[in-house]
Amino acid sequence: MQFCIRDDDTSFFTTPEQLEAAYGAVNRWGPVSLAVIPYCRAGTSRGVPASMRGRWTVHPLHENAALVQYLRAAVAEGRFEIMLHGYWHDEPHGRPEFAAGQDLGRRVAEGRRYLEELLHTHIRVFVPPHNTIGSDGLKAIAQNGLHLGCTAGIRSGWSPLAPRSWQTWLRLRQWRRRGEAGVPWVLDLADHREVYGVPVTRSSRCEEQDAAFESARRIGGVFCAATHYWELDTPGATGQPSVGEQLQRLIERARSVPAVRWRSVGDILTGGSVTPVRGN
After folding, report:
1. Mean pLDDT over residues 197-215, rounded?
2. CATH number of the structural domain 2-272
3. Highest averaged pLDDT of the listed ranges 71-75, 92-96, 269-273
4. DSSP per residue over 186-255, as a string?
5. Helix (H) or strand (E) segment spanning residue 141
6. Which of 31, 85, 126, 130 is positioned for an S-S bond with 35, CB 3.0–4.6 A?
7. Cα angle at 107 between 109 and 197, to 5 degrees?
8. Domain boundaries, the chain
9. Taking the model in full, what pTM does it have?
10. How far apart are CA 138 and CA 122, in angstroms?
11. SS3 call for 53
12. Among 13-27, 45-59, 145-159, the least confident range
């Protein structure tokens, strides 16, 4: 079984202290994949400070020199993988950027090049803002040789003319009909691959996370925990642990299973190197 953590919304507004508090200890066990916004627009995202929300000003990542220095060092040490998380993230019209935006191919190419040059890394994965992407967005990432750090679907952008789309849809439908949880394997859509992110948020539930983990463990599949560094201190839903406690439960569970291998999202999607989950 393969295990990874996907964390969204690192941007100009993120501090090194926030990421270190969230993942400084976690990095002892394996890498964390950060979905980074290149030119964050101060819109409605809760990753933007409340005092800045709704101003719609644009804040390039390089203007936060302390964060750039921190990320460069952490990437070089193998602690973090950098993924592309949209271009601006939020749009004034309120629709998801990569479901209804324009010039998506240019935005992917420019955003990727900017982050690669700035952070001295190679980007293999795209994570759409708000986990929402359309057919034009999927074409844009495929044209740029990137994979998807979530799942789309027939209704959200898979080509209805491609046999691989319907083969994948049928496999997922059969999985659901058997009452199985999660999507415990990489979805290969021919021009790109996708991996499902199991939500670890203030509205998620431990029993659903546990069911998805068990399905992945049983078939030797993939489990990707999807969360936000800025949400880890947030209380969970009624009767649920905090978001950070939910994530810690999953980390401890991964560490307790001998067959689990901790990898970055990019390595899972491209078949890269394996990091064993280390014990105490």
Report:
1. 97
2. 3.20.20.370
3. 71-75
4. -EE-SS-EE-PPEE-STT--HHHHHHHHHHHHHHT-EEEEEEEGGGTTS--STT---HHHHHHHHHHHHH
5. helix 135-143
6. 85
7. 90
8. 2-272
9. 0.94
10. 20
11. coil
12. 145-159
